[in-house]
Prior knowledge:
Blueprint (H helix, E strand, L loop, with lengths): L3 H17 L3 H8 L2 E4 L3 H6 L6 E7 L2 E7 L4 E3 L7 H13 L9 E3 L7 H18 L4 H9 L4 E2 L5 E8 L2 E8 L8 E7 L8 H17 L7
Antiparallel strand pairs: 1-2, 2-3, 3-4, 5-9, 6-7, 7-8, 8-9
Helix pairs in contact: 1-4, 4-7, 5-7
Amino acid sequence: xxxxxxxxxxxxxxxxxxxxxxxxxxxxxxxxxxxxxxxxxxxxxxxxxxxxxxxxxxxxxxxxxxxxxxxxxxxxxxxxxxxxxxxxxxxxxxxxxxxxxxxxxxxxxxxxxxxxxxxxxxxxxxxxxxxxxxxxxxxxxxxxxxxxxxxxxxxxxxxxxxxxxxxxxxxxxxxxxxxxxxxxxxxxxxxxxxxxxxxxxxxxxxxxxxxxxxxxxxxxx
Length: 221
């Protein structure tokens, strides 16, 4: 029987093969990154293919560099070095179509087939964040800005994160009052959500939720 680790390894190798077959210069334009080819005299001298170089993506408050054709990651921050994030980055590169996201914000359950994981996003991401930042919209906003977020005029506090250039993710907070508990919502831009598989969008929300909770000393909650 194939284990989960073996399945993940197979999935990683499959998407590596898929991305490596793409033209990196074209890919950089579609994905919102930057392609830097190796010097003309280096590929032949070192036995590298002509398309050797580095693709750089702006990611959250940092950058993610991917060498070509090895597809080795050089993350700017430790939170970008995990296996799930690297797999998501490769999926993003394989799917990014070049369309610039708009402002058509939708919840996870509104994405096609999103009902399957919607409760997981609520349980693992939205409710824990609401508990941590229930009555402190300033700290909520500060945690987002600390990850490179752009504040938005929504709810009591809101911001948009760019975990990948064309996959913006919005977090909104309604603080608690005498009648209602605090509520946090995770929203995706409808066209931007097409740049990642459905399961990756869930994993991405969980990853961002952990980072935002750790900004308030709540990383283990």
